[in-house]
Write a structure and sequence with these properties.
Oligomer: single chain
Shape: globular
Order of helices and strands: HEEEEEHHEEHHEHHH
CATH topology of the largest domain: Bifunctional carbon monoxide dehydrogenase/acetyl-coa synthase(codh/acs), Chain M, domain 3
CATH class of the largest domain: Alpha Beta
Number of strands: 8
Number of domains: 2
CATH superfamily of the largest domain: Bifunctional carbon monoxide dehydrogenase/acetyl-coa synthase(codh/acs), Chain M, domain 3
Number of helices: 8
Largest sheet: 5 strands, mixed
């Protein structure tokens, strides 16, 4: 079962739409310096904000178990890089992880579903543990947005999305079961950030269905709030009922 198939397809469509995108292969030697705790950037020290007030923003992490998904880890930039930005701008950071199917296991088994849910949570929570110097990340789990304050000093010292991407990639690739990773940054003002935020919401809802399985599901699909997810994700309804062939 490919949990996030429709979201993954949308991301591929976006990449095809932007042949001008910049791509950087993962290189741990090119990471931006990190601190050991939350990086605080005061307003007076800020060059600009990514995804700040009145600007579109989105953030999500999803996985694929497809063998032919991608092999090399990389950072992709669609829009201006950090050194090219002069003012507050829209922003999104999307992460796709190619993982070993064993990380998710047999989702028809409730214990495996619980392990998969915890594994997906762990991967998503990595974003709370990247403390890039002069790059203050504020993430809202309620509205699926990520906002970043970039310091003037970091800009002067040569911060780039490639270097920030390598910080994230380094963390993801150190997780057992992660085979490859893509970190995609958007700053193109013409991008549809509301659509990206809807993708983020969908990723959250799909992940949460694994948790809901453990709590017990309604037997009447028409009464279940997760019906739209079951209609979209192949095999999800059978997973909820714990057997093949169950119909709504």
């Amino acid at each position: 079962m490919e949990l996030y198939q429709t979201v993954l397809e949308h991301i591929e469509q976006l990449l095809e739409k932007h042949p001008e995108r910049k791509t950087y292969a993962y290189d741990s030697r090119k990471k931006w310096p990190e601190t050991d705790k939350f990086e605080l950037v005061m307003g007076r020290d800020t060059a600009y904000e990514l995804g700040g007030t009145n600007h579109g923003a989105a953030n999500f992490t999803c996985v694929t178990t497809a063998e032919d998904a991608f092999t090399g880890s990389e950072t992709i930039v669609i829009g201006n890089d950090l050194k090219e930005i002069r003012e507050d701008t829209p922003y999104a950071r999307l992460v796709i992880l190619s993982v070993d199917p064993a990380m998710l296991g047999n989702l028809e088994d409730k214990k495996a579903s619980e392990r998969a849910f915890r594994a997906l949570q762990k991967l998503d929570f990595i974003k709370y543990h990247v403390f890039a110097k002069g790059y203050m990340i504020r993430t809202s789990s309620e509205n699926f947005k990520e906002q970043v304050r970039v310091s003037k000093k970091a800009i002067a010292e040569g911060i780039t999305f490639e270097k920030i991407g390598n910080c994230f990639l380094d963390r993801y690739l150190n997780v057992d079961g992660v085979k490859a990773a893509r970190v995609i940054f958007f700053t193109d003002p013409a991008e549809d950030y509301n659509a990206l935020r809807e993708d983020a919401k969908k990723v959250h809802e799909i992940t949460m269905t694994l948790s809901r399985i453990l709590e017990g599901m309604p037997t009447d699909c028409s009464m279940c709030s997760l019906k739209p997810i079951c209609d979209e994700v192949e095999g999800m309804r059978e997973l909820h009922f714990g057997k093949e062939g169950t119909k709504s």
